[in-house]
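Hi all, a correction to my earlier message: I attached the wrong file for Outer membrane protein. Here's the right sequence:
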Amino acid sequence: MKFNRPHLLIALAVSASLFSQIARAEDECQLTLATNNVSFGLFKEDDIVDTQKGWHQMPSREVNVNVYCPETQTMALFVQARAGEKGRFYFGDSSGLALRVSQMVVDGKNYSVAKTIDRTQFVPEGESGESLLLHNNEGIIAMDNQTLVSGKQMNLTLKITPVLNNQQFTQSADVTSLESDLLWEVVTKPQ
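and the right structure:
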């Protein structure tokens, strides 16, 4: 595969909305992310991890996420951003950003992770597992078999993967910045 441009600069500004004041937490809960800025720096053709149907998976970054609530309760962490019709997050105007959640820990114990779109009862959608791909307007919850988990502290790992289309390489200037702003919200349900 040959690209017309020698390299492409990719700067991911998930920072402000991914990590700080824009993130909302209910009931005095605190949302903390390990870093305030995720940057992928300069991507070259050599950086492509995998290619399928004109889409190029680039190297991922991981961010540790911590939610702390002063009282024991069931917690869900929801995400919103500019996305396509299937809920896939945009990265720039025409590329994508994949978010994978794993390593769910509540109060020091490992649990399965599940998705929900229900902001009141947190009814899970689909099967829970060790990891899952997160889409727009979905929340993540901890599950123990078929039961929601309550606790004071929830930790997880968020893997962020840019997926660039061919146009991003062939029709971009030598240096292009791509951004994706994600809004995180902690929603709780008292025990």
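Sorry for the mix-up. The longest helix spans residues 15-19.
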